[in-house]
Amino acid sequence: MSQRSLGIYVHWPFCKAKCPYCDFNSHVRHQGVEPDQFGDALAAELGWFADQTPGRTVTSVFFGGGTPSLMPPAIVGRVIDQVARLWPVTDDVEITLESNPTSAEAENFAGYRSAGVNRVSVGIQALDEADLKYLGRQHSVQEGLAAFRMAAGIFPRTSFDLIYARPGQTPDQWRLELGRALQEQQGHMSLYQLTIEPETAFFRLHEAGQLETPGEDHAAEMYEITQELTSAAGLPAYEVSNHARPGHECRHNMLYWTYGEYAGVGPGAHSRLVADDGSRLALATEKHPETWLARVSASHNGVVENTVVAGEDAAHECLLMGMRTVNGVSLKRLQQMSGARINRGPLEHLVSDGLVCLANSGDHVVATAAGRQVLNSVIEFIASRTLR
Fold it and tell me: Is 1 helix (H, G, I), strand (E, B) or coil?
């Protein structure tokens, strides 16, 4: 059997506090957590996924959350060692850990590096003290910058992560803040526009009229400022919200965006695997940490959803992810997945409107800078008009 690339996602669901904008599967446990228990369960669930994925080679491991920088380094090392026991691993495997830049968590950086982590994504989120508090962050500006500088001295690759279009933020303020961040970055930046997600504290405030984000025009201006300054600094966008010097792109996330295979372990983790017949399997694990723990203890996995994604549904997922990148999506691949003929007529309308271009001898559809500003509409248009 030929070897295929596989990414491993590891979800650590615990946080010190729940940020008001966050809709991820994260939990606060004031009574404490038994990390060894969860480490045992992660190792067991990895074993179950290894049985489902023969013939794969692991190219990336990503610790997300929650707050994975609350994991003891020994548990991180145990997970990495278990991955290496269960699958072949490439020599240049990328092992990323998301971290909060509090001083207490930064003290673990050296331990994570010794465990095998070679890339960290540091959630600075803002370079404004009042905004950090409003976002529910547990660090100050200086503490965040100190942690980032420490990380840059320990890990071969780092990401400087910020949120913009925050309540009350102006384009001029964002220009100054991003300029300051660009002086600190080490080759990769994740720059996310604040979105108000359902079932978050910010959503409830927004619905009550107590939180107002910048209007569409200001948000669009901040997006354009982001593209301008990062490109000038040599970190062009390779995905809607991610910017990097060549060679510093996050390989694990590229696996998502190019619709590759990945196995997700831990509470609420998702997986996309390819079955022997070429169809894709969408798996999800139990979200509640202690319930997940009990499921893994009983049957070596916490999977509660396992569905087939095929035909037009698979093509739509591939389109949704791939259009976020500067390389776009292969029309040939969409046709193979959907089993439907690609109708190029509607694409010409998008081309003439300057929202997409066709690359690679016309096989790849790529969103232009203007198209990325209205990407959801572009994707919906292609899905409803082209895949028919």
Answer: coil
